[in-house]
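Hi Q.,

Before the meeting this afternoon, I wanted you to have the nicotinamide-adenine-dinucleotide prediction in hand. No need to reply - just skim if you have a minute. The sequence and ligand are here:
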Amino acid sequence: MYKDIKLAIVGCGKWGMNHVRTANLILGKNFKIVCDSFCTNKDKISEISSEIIYTENLDDIINDKEINAVIVSSPAETHYEITKKLLLAGKNVLVEKPITLVPEEAEELIQIAKKDNLKLMVGHVLLYHPAVMKIKELVDKGIIGKLQYIYSNRLNLGTIRSEENIWWSFAPHDISVIQFLNESDPDEISSNGADFIQNGIEDTTLTYLKYPGNVHAHIFVSWLHPFKEQRLVVIGDKGMLVFEDSLKSEKLKFYKKGFHKTEKGLEKFENEYEVVTFDEKKPLEEEQKHFFESIINNTTPLTDGVHALKVLNILEKAHNQLKN
Ligand SMILES: NC(=O)c1ccc[n+]([C@@H]2O[C@H](COP(=O)([O-])OP(=O)(O)OC[C@H]3O[C@@H](n4cnc5c(N)ncnc54)[C@H](O)[C@@H]3O)[C@@H](O)[C@H]2O)c1
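Predicted structure with the ligand bound:
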């Protein structure tokens, strides 16, 4: 199915190796090159496939006429420069989140890709999670009625980074999902945070977003938390959906709960939750397939540069609030 895709991956660190394993499963021999400026996983790559070429020179990808798709999984501060070089060389690019560190750079990448009809996709992997797809389907069907409040908690002990704070590290996922469910942009953003472990690098942030149509949201992220919690709660006027990816089972639940306005006043309705099932697909596999199919079918990826730029604008606005 993907015989016309010839892939390279840039960056094979912790997350990049997940891309390497996944691409090898999907593409086999059509996954040709891995490039990393200082890779500590060379042995693991040759264990995965002896046919994958390893290079430290990006030009080996740029000059390979056969390569038409590149996944960039290097650190965020390198995304702009590497992605720009690849797009200018005529390659379709799936770059990890965040697309770049500043909106102007993301806008430039979008324009370059548009000019040459190249795909520019960003690894907002949660939008390829079958549970999130299911939530969107249920929201669109009106199962929970009018959207009112969304919140996302992404909490754990570590991994602590020094090049970015918790907001930049975790929140792109949550923003991306909230944007996807809302299909609009927030007109109010406020954010607070605190640094305990490293001076000036927030370990915990709480960000509030207000969307048109009286839809509100908050994102609570922390890497200084005693246990892992990944909880998304979506509240409407007819019911509520709760997705807890950190649970082993019953990850997605529908609660028919809320309040009706009656002549006598407010009436509470409260029912037992129902477990909602969803496909057992792996999000990263779905993300990569979506990228390859967007190239083959010449379609716009769900998490294209424009989606990622909106996420980046929110990241930046909240960041400025944190720093002020
Ligand atoms: N989608 C997700 O759920 C998810 C999860 C974790 C990380 N990420 C993203 O993936 C990216 C990589 O994160 P990571 O945790 O794997 O980082 P990492 O530090 O473990 O790995 C980065 C790799 O890139 C290499 N590298 C650095 N500069 C390079 C350059 N100029 N050219 C080629 N290679 C270069 C490094 O040598 C290293 O091997 C980041 O953008 C991060 O935000 C996404």
